[in-house]
Amino acid sequence: MRAFLPRCLAALAVTGALLGAADTASAARGLADYRYFRALTIDLAGRMPTRAEVAAFEADGFDLDGYIDQQLAGPAYAERVRRIYMDLLRLDVGPTFQIVPPQTTLRREQIQGPNGKPLGIYYRKGQRRARIETDGDFCMTQDETGLQFPPNTAPTGAPKSVSQEALDAATVVVKPWWLYRDYGSAAPTDRYDAATWATRLPGFTPVVGLTMELDGTTPTVEIRICKEEAQQAPSGTIFAPKRPAPVKGAPPPYGRLAQLPQDSAYATAHAGEAIACTMGSSLGMAADCGCGVGLERCMPGDGPGFDPRAFSFPTASPLGDAAPLDDSPQAQSAWLRYFWGQEAIHFLDNVFAQDRDFRDVLTARDTWVNGPLTQFYKSVAPAACCGDGLTLGYTKEQPLLEPSTLPALLPHDVMRWEHVADRGPQASGIFTMPVFLTKYGTRRARAHVAYSTFLCRDFISGNVQLRPSTEPNLMIREGCSTCHATLEPLAAYFTRITESGWTFLPASTFPASSTTCKADASGNLPGRCKTYYDPAFADATHAMLRGAYGSTDHAEAGPRGIADAFTAAPEFAPCVAENIASALLARPLTTDDAALRTALTQTLTDGGYKLRALVRALVKSDAYKATNDVVAHASRDGGAP
Amino acid sequence: MTRTDRRTFLKVLGSGMLAATATSMPVFRALAQAPPTGDEFFILIHAAGGWDVTLSLDPRNERKGIVDPASTDNTDTSNLRRWVDVPLDADTQSFALVRPAGSNLVFGPAIGDMGDMADRMTLFNGLAMNTVSHPDGTAFAVSGRHLAGGHPAASSVDAMLANEYGTSQLFPVVSVQYPSSFVGSGLDPRAVPLRVGSIDNIAKSLLRSAQYDTKADRDAVTVMLAEEARELAARSYFPETMNGMALQLGSLRRLLDDSLSSLFSASALAAAQPTLGPKDASGKPRKYQGAAATNAAFAVEAMKRNIVRCVSFTFGGFDTHNGNYKFQAETQQEAFDVLASLVRALDASPHPTKTGARLSDHTHILVVSDFCRTPQINLAGGRDHYPNGSAIVVSPRFKTNMVYGKTDADQLLPDDAGAFTDGVRPVSPPDLLATFVSAFGTDPRKYLRDGEVVKEVLVG
Amino acid sequence: MKKVRGHGYVRASLLAVALFGAALSSACGKDKPAAPAETPIAPVPVSQIPGHEQIGEDTALKESPRLVPQEAYMRTYLQLFGGLAPADVQKRIKLGSATLFDTWNDYLSALGLPDYRLDLPRAAQTSSLMLATFERLGVALCDKAVERDLRAGAGAAANRPVFAFDLPSVEPDLAAFTTRFDSLHRTFLGYPAALAGTSRTARFYTLYTNAVAAHAAPGAAKSAFTASEAGWASVCYGLVRHPEFHLY
User: Fold this and answer.
1) ipTM entry
2) B with C: how many residue pairs have Cβ under 8 Å apart?
3) Do C27 and A11 touch (CB under 8 A)?
4) pTM metric for this prediction
């Protein structure tokens, strides 16, 4: 009998499976049961089971369904699902995208102070100043310092001690936000203290270069900054002093390395009018706009470089921002980039932890912010606006996140995340978050990643030869149309958000079809229009807003339009099911999985697009349990299966 | 499980002797066989971001059709050694073409030191990329397949070559930020690319402390774990994963056997290969390709010691849509300088197993990019993505001083390259990859669904 | 990727079962002659078939095991350190053992974590470098666990993260080893060692005794461990690097 048992049992084991005879509910656990429990814990609790959990599982009456539900209610489950979508969307912006707007970037030049010691002076590149010698440049001259100030590198020349008079005339002393928690008060006293702030305000760690004087030993209690930069008013006046034009071939005057700034046509036409100091254009158009109270509208840097260092924070935090792996001094631009990614993480975690409708990922108007993000949305984000848009009448930005909705957080509140219930009418899930808009800088890239992530479809070009053509419409151009007939209309949804940025272009200022911007006899558009309107889709009567040619309806619908279109698409729910299932099964779904996919899709749609029900159904499915890879006779070798 | 495996499985099921015959399954047998050995080495490079071929490999210095050539208006020429002004417009200058003596190849001014190596190069121009998406172009360039559902549909060329020739090596393939993919169950698990962010990372994983345990202690554990993995494989319906681990554990013992610390230190590599350090031959710090130079130095040193079969890495910095285009030419020049230094270093290195041979006699380099950049300059002063591509092969198995494929004069689009079985058409990445792997005797169909071997570029 | 997975396998198996029904009955029928053809055979649970009462029935579908998500590996690692934060674990390991560990960041790419900033995808398969990293990290975990759990002042055994027992006063025989090994097996692999098959416990016991002997031998390399500690450390290495620890 024993000699042929293995053969017999191998067949019977299969038969049992086919008859659905599996019963893992008995207290006498088999290997498959333990493995299943371990898999559940890894996927839903985010770690392997502890010895105590294994013991509990072995006990009579262990409620496996209750265990699953308990884990599904925990943060590890939310993180697991979030990771699935983060792996697909990769929402973290790399170092190639440097956000160092001159409007909000303070750099520091080193001169020789009146006492002969090194002295750091903070300033903004391009700051307009009433004093002609330093207009648009560092606020002290070669005569005063013995130095010239090349861009993005250390001063050159033989330093000499500046006079106290010249120093006081050009600079002021400020207690800035990165040194004082109470920077908004008249006399700040709550200075940064590494030992206590690590507990009080965890995660906020200015680099040593910002908290210590240049001697490396004296704590910095106040800083010197060019006086224009220290101005606090929320608005200024447009400044057009008509500086002498540079003479071709002549060196810049006053020992400068850069020529004097010239007034733009807009500034000349609007001289004396008010301009908001948060707008990027104010740096080059107003001499009375500065960095605000405690310099809160600007980010500090510890040197003159293009992207100087500012804060120490994690370079990677795969276990979440509360479990950092390191704390490294990093460039100023990395600070905000890091928190853009964290915003998406906190938003997705909330959607999944609260078991909200999955469609919120694409459509919701809420978000989560911490102190640095609050500062970004209030002060840094508007600096991207509006460039040439001013000349078309875009003088007051309509932001993707309305600053008035932001909580009262200070920049030091790194680990304090608060809910923003409604970002504003343009907001739409992750599609209008800075991390998405900069990670995927172009309209087409945005549409493409949304298409592949949320509809599980891709653009596969045909095996066609691209022939030379002057056809600008890629939806009909031979060879291009196979992909672009679909892609261009989807990309059009992002027409009203600038590429590689987050500036919203309202229809009131930027109509999809402009009759103000139209081509001349040579087919050229006016210079002020070219940034926004496409010469390839312009004629003598009108010009098309860039990207809108794919579909003006989609352009008007905006990111919310693509969110609505995708969530209503028949592929959407099956795609959610497929993404979740293929991630948890660690393999692509095949045609063999059609029934599973259908069942999971049904669970999702019947349950109001709540992922918890879908994941529950998945982890209870045979497909999930199937990762038990041990053959029948092997189980028998160890006793019970 | 492959179809063959399934049939085998059913037979086994029928006889009731599943476990006993598991080791007779074809896959297992294939894995258990001694892998082919070889004397050839491979260096695969990805020019990440999509390079502007009009500056180097497929130069344009005139306005024609939609082509806006590089000019003093849009390019910082101050550090370009081969840039010679040629009038373009009233106030702007384009460049003189670089024509190496005795060669029929023509380059742009960003070609750097590779301009002196026409007799070592085989160029592919007018590659039909049929995509302008970075991920898709990258996958197509290195695997010959477009992405499927956002995922690679085939293994990348470094994994193909590692599987074919590298499984007996300590490091079948080291991939430093190269877009490597390992797809399918038919490949040997040891050919899974060792993907790292930098060469230094490897060193940290290989360091061992002698404070508590000994090498013998760890080896004993490794041997036992390999036994465990093999036993688990024998008890599994799908043994590939466990068998793979057993094989990798076997590699691990050898990986930790050697003293490799100098191989994984940027400073030690720079000392061993001074022309591939953070400074170029003139002592000037590399601004764009310092990491690539270190990776190239690693390739040379690791191949000299015969512990690697493939090294794959990237040249970076080519995705220049806006004002950063000004530095595209200099970025390319550095990349081509590193490539030239790499070739010279291979020339100067003895082959580890072939007495009297140079390493370069048996090392094969393939450089590809996602696609190229638009012939026209955009509003921001940069160039966007364009569905055309160029590639470089440096290999003794290829005819040199020649270019295969071309682009049209007006629009820089891929033009007919030659007659293929499906007619006259441009050359495509699958053709290039099929030709490359076939040069070493591998049947391209083993790895590539598409593509035809271009015999006219192969020696013999 | 596999072309045929669980469901396909089931379908294939259905066909197979139908086709080799005769084989089944003949195989099982050596002790029990087949019933007359005209008498239908009602299906019965396998346990009711004579001789099968005490034999388990493996009814699960099959799939290849998956690589444990890198984040779950790291969290488990931290948990086995007593629930410390990553930075604290790093400090704790390096305290007095600077060469045991570098920084977490040095291992992330080798562990296969994705880097979204650089668009490096998550590794789905092991590689020899990944196994080398598992060894590097696993050895550090076990060395510190031996110091923490097996020496004086370790606290109640049940509360110790790794070694939930005291160091035996005499070298354990196989039976004594088996009890302790089972505890470790549950800690790392999540199930009783007895279910792993007959050879595992014996194999680990051999590993243990060899390590003890090697460290106790005259002229053995200097170690911060006693011979017995080195033995248990080796067992720990074997489990924290085990294929079943990293796959699920």
Assistant:
1) 0.89
2) 197
3) yes
4) 0.83
